[in-house]
Design brief:
This protein has 15 helices and 12 strands. It is α/β, with parallel strands linked by helices. The chain folds into 2 domains: about 1-25 and about 65-265, Aspartate Aminotransferase, domain 2 (3-Layer(aba) Sandwich), CATH 3.40.640.10; about 265-405, Alpha-Beta Complex (Aspartate Aminotransferase, domain 1). Helix 3 runs parallel beside helix 10, helix 4 crosses helix 9 (about 235-245) and helix 13 packs across helix 15 (about 390-405).
Length: about 400
C-alpha cells in the first residue's frame, strides 16, 4: 500500500507544466486581500464552518496553503479523509478532547476513558481537567466497562511512551463500538501513533476514529520544526478546524513546509533507525549492567508478538531500559554518554536519551508513574542514524564506566 512505500509524501494534484515549482512554496502571509465584499464574506463563512479551503484564505489563522499541503500529504499516508495540523502535539491532543466532548448533536460528553501509560503531558492534561474533562483510567481489556453515558472519547497510545507497551487497537475499537450501540451515541477512539508513524501503523484502518501524531518527532525528523496533526474523517476535521480557529493553534507555515519535507524521507529514516534499534536492544538485553529492556522486537508476550504481525509493521526505533543500581546509577549512565545527546523528544536523526521520571513524565504524580510502569531508573533511548557500532560503544562505556564510578 502507499503508506509502505512513502510515495504519497507529496500532496495534491501534480501540475507538470513548464515552470511549475518542484518544491511547494512557503506562504508566509498573515492576511489576504480582496476586491469583492460578497466573495470574501462567502469565503469567511466556509472557513467558519470548518471547510478545508475557500476561494480566499482570508487570514492565516483560518487557512494557510503551505500547512494545507502538509495536511493533504499526512492524510494520504494515514488513509484518512482529512488531516488537521496544529502548532504542537499538545494543541492537537487538546483539540481532539474538545472536539469529541461537544459533538454535532450538541450534547456535552466530557468524560474520557484513557489507557496508561501516555505521554506525560497528555496524562497531566487529562488528570488536571483544565479542559473541563473528566478522565477514567482503564486497562485495555476494561475499556467497555469504563465507558459511561457522558463518555465522548477513548484515548490510547501505542506503542506507549515510554514503556513501548502495545495496545490492541481492534479490541479497544470493538469495546467502544459495543458501548456506543448500547448508549445510542458514538464514543470516538483516538490513537496516539507518534512512535509508530504511518510507516509502521495505520490506526484508522484498524477502526479508530482519529490518529494523532506529535509531528515534532518522526514526521519532521530533524528536530527543527514543532507541530501536531490529527488524521480523521471529514466531519471530525471540520470540528477540529473550528476549534483551531477559535483557540489559535494553527501550525506556522515554515514548520508546515519542514514537516511536509520530512515526510518525503520518513520511510527511509524509520526503517534505518529501526534496524539500529533492533541491534542495540538485543545487546542491551545481555549487558550485565542492564536490568531489563522494553522494546517490541524483544517481546516475549504472545499478545505483543501477535500485534507485531497484525497491527504494526515493525517494532520502531524507540526503546527503554532499566539500569542496575537504581536512579542514581541511571543518572550516572546518562551523564557519562558522549556521542548520544542528553535531551527530551525523539524521532530525530540523532540519538537522544533521557530519564522519563525526571523529564517527560515529571508532571505525572509519582504513584501514577509507578502504576504506569515508569520507575525512576528507566531510561528512554530514541535511536537515530549514527553508526550503530558507534552508538553501542558509547552505551557500553557509559554503563561500565558508571558502574566503576559507583564502586
Amino acid at each position: 500500500m502507499a503508506v509502505r512505500s512513502g510515495r504519497h509524501a507529496r500532496s495534491g494534484p501534480r501540475d507538470e507544466e513548464v515552470g511549475t515549482p518542484h518544491v511547494p512554496a512557503i506562504d508566509l502571509s498573515t492576511t489576504y486581500g480582496f476586491q469583492s465584499s460578497a466573495s470574501i464574506a462567502e469565503s469567511m463563512d466556509d472557513l467558519l464552518e470548518g471547510a478545508f479551503t475557500a476561494p480566499n484564505p482570508v487570514y492565516a489563522r483560518l487557512h494557510n496553503p503551505t500547512v494545507a499541503g502538509f495536511e493533504e500529504a499526512l492524510a494520504l499516508l494515514e488513509g484518512a479523509e482529512a488531516a488537521v495540523a496544529f502548532s504542537t502535539g499538545m494543541a492537537a491532543i487538546s483539540a481532539t478532547i474538545m472536539a469529541t466532548a461537544t459533538p454535532e448533536d450538541g450534547a456535552p460528553r466530557r468524560h474520557v476513558v484513557a489507557v496508561r501509560p501516555l505521554y506525560g503531558g497528555t496524562d497531566h492534561l487529562l488528570s488536571a481537567g483544565v479542559l473541563g474533562s473528566e478522565v477514567s483510567w482503564a486497562r485495555p481489556a476494561d475499556i467497555g466497562s469504563a465507558i459511561r453515558a457522558d463518555s465522548g472519547l477513548v484515548l490510547l497510545e501505542t506503542p506507549a511512551n515510554p514503556t513501548l507497551t502495545m495496545v490492541d487497537i481492534r479490541s479497544v475499537v470493538r469495546q467502544a463500538r459495543e458501548a456506543s450501540r448500547s448508549l445510542g451515541h458514538p464514543v470516538a477512539v483516538a490513537v496516539d501513533s507518534t512512535f509508530a508513524t504511518p510507516v509502521l501503523q495505520n490506526p484508522l484502518a484498524l477502526g479508530a476514529d482519529l490518529v494523532l501524531h506529535s509531528a515534532t518527532k518522526f514526521l519532521g525528523g530533524h528536530g527543527d520544526a514543532m507541530g501536531g496533526v490529527v488524521a480523521c474523517s471529514d466531519g471530525l476535521a471540520k470540528r477540529l478546524r473550528q476549534i483551531r480557529m477559535m483557540t489559535g493553534g494553527i501550525l506556522h507555515p515554515l514548520a508546515g513546509y519542514l514537516l511536509h519535507r520530512g515526510l518525503q524521507t520518513l520511510p527511509l529514516r524509520v526503517r534505518a533507525q529501526q534496524e539500529s534499534a533492533r541491534i542495540l536492544a538485543a545487546r542491551l538485553s545481555t549487558h550485565p549492567e542492564v536490568r531489563s529492556v522494553h522494546f517490541p522486537g524483544l517481546a516475549d508476550d504472545p499478545v505483543e508478538r501477535r500485534l507485531l504481525s497484525t497491527q504494526q509493521r515493525g517494532p520502531g526505533s524507540v526503546l527503554s531500559f532499566r539500569v542496575r543500581g537504581g536512579p542514581g546509577q541511571a543518572t550516572r549512565v546518562v551523564e557519562s554518554l558522549g556521542l548520544i545527546t542528553r535531551a527530551v523528544s525523539l524521532g530525530s536523526v540523532d540519538t537522544l536519551v533521557q530519564a522519563p521520571a525526571q523529564l517527560t513524565h515529571r508532571v505525572v504524580e509519582a504513584t501514577d508513574r509507578a502504576a504506569s510502569g515508569v520507575p525512576d531508573d528507566l531510561l528512554r533511548l530514541s535511536v537515530g542514524l549514527e553508526d550503530v557500532d558507534d552508538l553501542w560503544q558509547d552505551l557500553d562505556q557509559a554503563l561500565t564506566g558508571a558502574n566503576r564510578s559507583a564502586a
